[in-house]
Design a protein that fits this description.
By secondary structure, the protein is of the alpha/beta class. The protein has five helices and five strands, in the order βαβαβαβαβα. The protein has a five-stranded parallel beta sheet with strand order 2-1-3-4-5, sandwiched between helices. Strand 4, helix 4 and strand 5 form a beta-alpha-beta unit. Helix 1 crosses helix 5 and helix 2 runs parallel beside helix 3. The radius of gyration is 14 Å and the shape is globular.
Length: about 140
């Protein structure tokens, strides 16, 4: 079952703080869960299996232990998890990397904004798109 919460895989504590602050400043009451690497992300999804899944995942590419590329591939090969929209949210702006992520199954690729004001706009647009505009499978 899809729930209106957001799962964020981000290893940088400052980036996690800024994202949480952006959600708070926008007044969103959505639950935002944070994990610090791909292993934690997969473990988290497995721990909530058959109960609820995030409305979407914000996935950093450059994380320790299991990076975003490996994690994206694993999610999109899983029979249930593959239905969860994955938004790659990274500092990497490289055409080959963007192409690779879409080939691995990314639903969206966003380069992290460089200012907090831009982050507020991106958070608003991504959240509104996945929770208000897009239609995704219920299970």
């Amino acid at each position: 079952m899809r729930k209106d919460f957001i799962l964020v895989a981000e290893d940088d504590a400052d980036d996690r703080y800024l994202m949480q602050t952006a959600f708070d400043e926008k007044g969103y009451k959505d639950k935002v869960e944070f994990v610090e690497n791909g292993i934690e992300l997969i473990n988290y999804l497995e721990s909530i299996a058959n109960t609820e899944y995030p409305g979407f995942i914000l996935l950093d590419l450059n994380m320790p232990k299991k990076d975003g590329r490996e994690t994206l591939k694993e999610i999109k090969q899983h029979p249930v998890f593959k239905k969860i929209p994955v938004v790659v949210f990274t500092t990497t702006k490289n055409d080959a990397e963007i192409q690779r992520c879409y080939e691995l199954g990314a639903n969206t690729y966003i380069v992290k904004p460089t200012s907090f004001e831009s982050l507020l706009t991106v958070i608003q647009e991504v959240r509104n798109y996945w929770f208000s505009v897009a239609s995704i499978p219920a299970s």
